Each structure stands twice: as C-alpha cells, then as structure tokens.
Amino acid sequence: MLLLAGVFSLGRFLRPAVRQKKTLLTVARAAIPNNGALVYREARVALIREAEEIYALDLVCTHLGCTVSVTPRELVCPCHGSVFDRRGNVLKGPADRPLARHAVEIRGEQVVVLL
Amino acid sequence: MIKEFLKHLFPRVVLKGNLRMTYTFCLGGLAFTSFLLLAASGLPMLFYYQPLPDKAFNSILFLESSVWGGLYLRSLHRLASHCFLVLIFLHTLRVILTGAYRKPREMNWLIGFILLCLAIFAAYTGYLLPMDQLSLWATQTGMELVNSTFVGGTAIGILVPDGVGQPMALLRFYILHIVFVPVSLLLLSFLHFYRIRKDKGALPYL
Questions:
Q1: Residue A86: pLDDT above 70?
Q2: A55, A78, B45, B205: least buried by Cβ within 10 Å?
Q3: Would B204 be classed as within a structural domain?
Q4: B124 belongs to a structural domain
Q5: In this complex, do B44 and A19 lie within 8 Å of one another by their Cβ atoms?
Q6: What are φ and ψ of residue A2, in 5° steps?
Q7: Residues B44, A15: C-beta atoms closer than 8 Å
Q8: What is the pLDDT of residue B204?
C-alpha cells in the first residue's frame, strides 16, 4: 500500500505541468510599419518594429489591468493615466512595472506571437 | 536473511536499565533520521535542478510552481537540513557533557567530529545551489572566512576556481553536495554505529 502510494507520488512528481505555448497571432512581417506599431485591441497586443527588432508588447496595464491606448509617441492607460514609452518602460505612474512582452517567433515572412 | 542480519546488529543481551532514553535522548539517531529525510527529499529534486548559474534559480522556481509536490519537497529538504544541524550539535553537546568522548570511545569521538564537520560542509555547499541573492552573498562571505585561514588560498582555488557563483564553482558545489559529502557522511555514520556496538553501547560501563 505504502509502496503503491510512493510509486504514484513519484509518477506525479515526474510529470511537471509544462505549459504549451499557444499561437496568439500570425502576421506578415511586411505588415508591421518600420518604427511603427500594429495594434490588436481584442488580443491586447501591440506588435512594434524598431529598425530590425520586432517585439510584442502586452497591452495590459501593469497597474490594474486596463487596456492601454497606443499613441504615436507613447502608450497611455485611460484608467489612471499611467504612461509607458514605446519599449514598455514606465514614464509616469501609478504603474510601477514595465509592460510585459510576449515571445515572438519569426518564421520566414511571418511573425508569430506566442502566448 | 534480512531478519537475521538485523538481529545480528543487536547485542545478545541488553540490560533493561540501559534502554533509558534520558541518557542520550536519541539525539544521534534523530540526526541520522533527518539525514535519511534529507536524502529522500533531495534525490527526487535531482530530476529538476540544473547546476548552471543562469538556469539554477529558474529551475527551482519551476520546481516550486509547476511540479506536483515540488514546493513540499524543497521545504522539507530545507527544514530537515536545519534539524540535522541542530540535532548533531545537541548530540555533540550531550557527548561532551556526559564525558562520552573519554577512553575507550576516543575513536568514535573523532569520527563524530568529522561527521559534524561534514554536516556543516553539506549545509554550506547546499546553500549556494538555489543561486539567489542570499545564497550567493552568504557563500561569498563564507569564502572570505575561509580565506582568512592559513590554507584559505588553496581551499578557495579548489572550491571556487573561477569565483563564487561562476559555472565551475557551482558545478563543484553541486557535485560535493550530492555525491561526495553525503556518501562520506553515510559511510562514516555506519562506522560510527559499528563503533558504538564495538564499545558495548552508549552508556558508561557500570
């Protein structure tokens, strides 16, 4: 009985909860304007391209979770006025952490955002 | 066969008065029990720990967050390590206070002292492995302490050839913590127990 419990526990211990990454979006690379952003309000993601670097900013405000609006210069939260720069760093509170980033994978001409 | 072997470990005759707890309080036995607990909780964690400076801390976060029983095992390992040190110190204190280090048990006192040092070393090497700020700087200060002794330079050259928290040093601490120190602890413990039997038990000669 004890042996059985041990084997069962070890079996569970050895099967970790590995999170499978899910594809959030697939976008053509050419669709992202240089030094600009593609905004997906429903998915709450902005794809930003700075020269050759492409990154996906999570648009969930790190203060209380509103969706931030993307303006040509910065990202502004409509709820409490937090302001972030294009890279997601905090310019003005009350948010105190930078915006999260999603993993981005470039597959040929496609840009895939993973969640 | 196993039953006969176990029977063989015990003396043929035991005086009832010698079985009283209040002389030793079983401190050595309890320390060995926590050592067994340490082994039982440490071995499964080997499946997840990665001894690389940039992976170690994340592998522990993964163990704690995504593995069933991971947090429990790590907490158990940590708690058992504290118990191990406290019990082995109390055991040493008991041996000193009852004068059990005297003839004919000098040999076992020596083995016991080595076991005490090994236990401290096991705790020290294990402390670095999570690679968080606390463990890194605690190991750093420990190394400064070693540096002030006359063999310090050599010891540091062997233990941390490329500096505390660097790849080679972490790997060495890891190997010492999971193989060399526990195996020597186990073997010396058996020798320790054998000597008790050989010296006719723990109680003073009546």
A1: yes
A2: B205
A3: no
A4: yes
A5: no
A6: -65, -40
A7: no
A8: 67
With beta carbons less than 8 A apart as the criterion, state whether B139 and B129 touch.
no
- Which residue among B47, B62, B73 sits closest to A14, beta carbon to beta carbon? B47
Question: What is the spatial distance between Cα B181 and Cα B117, in angstroms, rounded to a whole number?
Answer: 10
Break chain A into its structural domains and give their ranges.
20-114
Whether residue B206 is predicted with pLDDT greater than 60 in this model: the reply is no
The answer, yes or no, to whether residue A35 has pLDDT greater than 50, is yes
Contact A18 B44 (CB under 8 A): no
CATH assignment at residue B98: 1.20.810.10
Interchain CB distance below 8 Å, A17 and B67: yes
* Chain B residues lying within 8 Å of A20, measured CB to CB: none
Query: How many folded domains does chain B comprise?
Result: 1
Whether residue B20 lies inside any domain: the answer is: no
Q: Is B16 a domain residue?
A: no
Sheet holding A69-70, edge to edge: A69-70, A75-76, A83-84, A90-92
Residues of A at the B interface, defined by Cβ within 8 angstroms: 9-10, 12-19
Best residue in A10, A13, A15, A20 for a mutation probing chain B (most B CBs within 10 Å):
A13
Please say whether the beta carbons of A65 and A99 come within 8 A.
Answer: no
CB B68 to CB A10 under 8 A?
no
Domain that holds residue B62: 27-198
Which residue's entry shows tokens 């590995």?
Answer: A18
Percent of chain A at pLDDT > 70 equals 99
| Total residue count of chain B as it appears in this document | 206
